[in-house]
Amino acid sequence: MARIDTVIIETGPVAFTSAGIKRPKLGVEGKFSLWFLAALALAEGKVTLDRFTDEKVKDPTLIDLMGKIDARLVRELKFGARVSVRMKDGTEYSAHRAKPKGDPSNPMTFDEIAAKFRSVALLAIPASQADQLIEKVYNLGEVTGMSQLMELTVPRQAAGTIDQPVKSSVPGAKLRSLPDLQDRGMRTESHKLLGRKHRLRGGPRNPED
After folding, report:
1. How far is the first Cα of the chain from the last one, in angstroms, to the nearest whole number?
2. What is the pLDDT of residue 162?
């Protein structure tokens, strides 16, 4: 990251205004900061829910990188974005995306949605259950009842005890209790996973894929 000189981000009004917090102080504010999101993606290669922590927004490396980011509103881009990264040796990298990933014209694949769902689900249930849920949704035609899916959303170590803390599969994540399974993020990704499955066409997944 030390080799980066400046980062210029041009985006439309929706992204620019909804993520307009320039210097987040809390982890939750990082979700609404174009500067933090870009710095996180550049430094760590991915942006997932478990990274929105108070400690992460105070990370010196990310703070330094945020200071190199120049975010600009370009209304004509609408939902698109342009990014240019200039290195200290003069090398420049740039990219443009007219539609964000997940747009009807730029849809996510089942595997991409499954990976996103898994990163959210691991905050509430063990990895083995998240993987089973993904597999059952992929083979939804073989599921004989919704109870087969719903039982996998309940952490097995907490079954029958709604107030018992649940260990997360993500190191350092906060403990969750059963009511937390109603978290909107997890439910949203579940709906996307189911919706994408219904839109898929073709035969069953090749076990070797």
Report:
1. 35
2. 40
Residues 69 and 116 in one domain: no
State how far the Cα of 91 lies from the Cα of 84, in Å rounded to an integer.
Answer: 10
pTM here? 0.69
Please give the radius of gyration of the chain, using alpha carbons only, rounded to the nearest integer.
Answer: 20
Task: Provide the pLDDT confidence category of residue 188 given band limits of 50, 70 and 90.
Answer: low
User: In the structure encoding, which two tokens stand for residue 100, read together?
Assistant: 């964000």
Range of the domain at 145: 110-199
Q: Sheet containing 69-73: give its strands across.
A: 69-73, 4-11, 81-87, 92-97
Give the long-range contacts of residues 156-160, CB within 8 A, separation 24 or more: 156/126, 156/129
Rounded CA-CA distance 183/148 in Å is 20
